Amino acid sequence: MDKKKLMLLLGALVIAIGTALAARSLLTGAGAPKADAAQQVPKGPKVLVAQRALPVGTIITADSVSFQLWPKEMVQDAYFIDGEADMNKLLGTVVRYPITAGQPVTQGALVAPGDRGFLAAALGPGMRAVTIPVSAKTGVGGFVFPGDHVDLMLTQTVSGQGDGPPLKATDTILRNVRVLATDQSTDTTVEDGKTVVRSFRTVTLEVTPKIAEKIAVSQTIGTLSLTLRSLADNQTELDQAIASGSVKVPAGATKDQEAKFLADAMNRPVDGGTTFVTGGDVSRFQRRTAPSPERTAQVIASTLGNTIADRAGLPPAGAGRSAAAPSPGPVVRVTRGKNTTVESVGGR
């Protein structure tokens, strides 16, 4: 091989090596920024962020918010900073302004129990707060906490008015009612990681104006009792309502709007479609139905007539009649010697 060919071969080899090194450098340089970008994390403190959309009136719970890293240059004084904010004091507060998912929670967006306007902030749009008295027996033994949902039962006694024993009955008059407060407390007490169960004398409920009127009347009729609802009941009843068509999601709603609509529907109290139990369902010695209106009217009229006669010094109505008055229906006259009596056909 002559010298000229050898030089050309060496030149080609150098060019090939240079091209390979240049290509490797280009490939390595293109991948480095991506790797660096993937490893970039916000450099700053952790701030309190909403884990889901929190509409007005939402009670803050441990699963609704959490601390996340946030860019230092974007941190504001109104944010709750991890290590500075007391999470125990934030639980039980109520959202005053709507907060979207992933948005930092500001101090002005929450109102704490005992603060002015707390209960009004906890109420949903168009809702009212009403308080009823309870005891350990009617209040589920103290196992009802703010944020729970309950059903309301009314127990009453209807006088027989001379038509047998009184009617004893209990019926569920309201379902899915949200508890706002027990006594004057709108939060729960936690000690050593356990919720403290305590007795209370009053319960404040979130209801519609019409239901508030119904509860006020119910308290004058009989005794109100609470029954604690399962967390799964609301979702089950919502699914049934959607399937039956009684709850319809607005057409064209976004995913967030649909979720908010369904959450509002699931938390709304239900009035109507109640169940009941009478004394006859429990014991054969109790009556099953209410006194008939006709019999009640007869007893009231007879009692009123006897009262008027007694005050006027006259004999009671029917005093001259036989004590065993014939019952309505076919009768026959039976004569025994000089005595004639009226007997009901089949009455004895």
Q: Measured on Cα atoms, how large is the radius of gyration?
A: 39 Å
- Classify the beta-strand content into a percent band: 15-25%
String of helices and strands: HEEHEEHEEEEEEHEHHEEHHEE
How many structural domains in the coordinates? Answer: 4
Major sheet description? 7 strands, antiparallel
Low-confidence segments:
321-326
Q: Give the helix/strand class.
A: alpha+beta
Q: What is the CA-CA span between the terminal residues?
A: 145 Å
* Mean pLDDT across every amino acid position: 78
Shape: elongated
Helix content: 25-40%
Number of helices: 8
Query: Could you tell me the number of beta strands?
Result: 15
Q: Would you spell out the secondary-structure blueprint of this structure?
A:
Layout (H helix, E strand, L loop, with lengths): L2 H36 L7 E5 L14 E5 L17 H4 L3 E2 L14 E2 L6 H5 L5 E6 L15 E10 L8 E16 L7 E2 L2 E2 L6 E6 L1 H13 L1 E6 L2 H14 L10 H13 L2 E2 L4 E3 H4 L10 H19 L19 E6 L2 E6 L4
Antiparallel strand pairs: 1-2, 3-4, 5-10, 6-7, 6-11, 7-10, 7-12, 7-13, 8-9, 14-15
Helix pairs in contact: 5-6
